[in-house]
Amino acid sequence: MISANRRTDARDGGGPAGGAYDYDVTNVAPFTIDAVDGDARAGVLTTAHGLVRTPSFMPVGTKATVKALHPDRVRAAGGEIVLANTYHLHFRPGVDVVEALGGLHGFMGWDGPILTDSGGFQVFSLRDTILALDEGGVSFRSVYDGDRAELTPELVADAQRRLGSDIAMCLDVCPPSDAPSAEVKRAVALTSSWAARQRECERAPGQLVFGIAQGGIERELRAQSIEEVVALDFDGNALGGLSVGEERDALFQTVAWAAPLLPENKPRYFMGIGDPAGMLEVIERGIDMFDSVLPTRLGRTGTALTRDGRLNIRNARFAQDGRPLDEECSCAACERFSRAYLRHLVVQDETLGLMLLSEHNVTFLLDLTASARSAIEKGEFAALKAATLARLNDGQTDQEVPAWATHSSS
Ligand SMILES: [Zn+2]
Prior knowledge:
Layout: H1 4-14, E1 31-37, E2 40-47, E3 50-54, E4 56-59, H2 71-76, E5 82-85, H3 86-91, H4 95-100, H5 103-108, E6 114-117, H6 120-125, E7 130-133, E8 138-141, E9 148-151, H7 153-163, E10 167-169, H8 181-199, E11 208-213, H9 219-230, E12 236-239, H10 248-258, E13 268-270, H11 276-284, E14 289-292, H12 294-300, E15 303-306, E16 309-312, H13 332-336, H14 339-347, H15 351-378, H16 381-394
Parallel strand pairs: 4-14, 5-6, 6-10, 10-11, 11-12, 12-13, 13-14
Antiparallel strand pairs: 1-2, 2-3, 7-8, 8-9, 15-16
Bound molecules: zinc ion.
C-alpha cells in the first residue's frame, strides 16, 4: 500500500502547478470503488498527476505521442491517462534526453497521468531479436540499429523512474499464445522472480508500480502467477500475456475466473484490448483499465469506429455522404465534417483526415467507457452491453478486428 508520506511526496514532486488538485492526496486511498454491478466496477485511481476514473481506456502514446493527436485533443476526447513505452523511449530519444527536459510530462506536454510499459512486451513480441533470456534479464537486438541491448528489472525500474511516469509496469516474460506449457511455466517463474526484484527498486516521487501476471490461458499456471505477483503487494495488478493471438472466447473465459483472483481493492489492468465489444467483455468481468493502439491505428488506415460498426471511409459509397461519421458523436470530426469530406481527405492522403479519424476513434472509445461507468453506477451495465453489442452487430461493419490492431505494441 502507499503510505501517507509517499502521497505527500507525490503532490510536492510532480503534480500540476498552482494547486490544480481538487482533492487532498494525503488523505485519499489510491484506489476507491464507487459502485459495483455484478463483477463490473466503477472506481477512481489517484495518481501523482491527477485522478483516473475507471473503467478507463488508456490511449497509447508509444513514442510519447498519441499518434496524430495533440495532447489537448486527447484531453478534449475525454482522455485522463495515456500510455507510453519504455522500450521505444529508451532507444529514441533516450531516457537521458527525456529526463533532462523535465521527464515525460514536460517532454510530451501532457500534465495528466502517464502509465509506462516496461518494454518487455516489445522484446517478446519481436522474438527474432532475442539473444538470451535468463534469470538476470533478457538481451536482444534493438529494432532501431540492431545493437545488442538488455532489459533487467533494475534497468526498467530505473528508466521508468527517470521518465517520471505515474504508473510503472514490471518487466515480465510474455510468451506467444501457442507456446508449449514448459515455456509458459518458465515465463511465470521468471516473471515472479523479476517482479520481486523490481519491487525493491527506487521509484519516482509518487510513482505507483503494477505487477503483471502471466500464465497464458492455462488455469494452474495463471493462478500460480497471480498468487505470486499479488503476494508482492503492488499498487495494482495486470493480466499480461492475453490478447496475444488466442481465441477470443478462451481469452474472456480466462479473464472471467482470473480477474476475481486479483485483489478487490486495487486496480486491475488488462493489457492490450480496445475494440468496443472486447472492452465491454473485460469490464463485465471486473477489469478497471485497458489500453490499445486500435483507435489510432485504425484511424490512420481510414477506418472509423461507430455505434453501428466500422466504416472504411475510403469506400466509394461515402463519396457524397453528407452525414457525420457517427450521428451521436460530438468529437471535432463529427461536429463539423461530413463523411464525404473525410473520405476525400483520406483518399488524398491529407494529414488532417488521419488526425480527424484518429480523434474520432479515440473519442468513441472514451465515450463508450464513460457510458459503461455510468451504467455500472446505475446498476444497468448488462443492459448497456446488450444494447451496444446488438447495435454494433447489426451495423455495417466493414472488417473484423485484425490481431495486429489490438495490442499495445507499436
Ligand atoms: Zn466523432
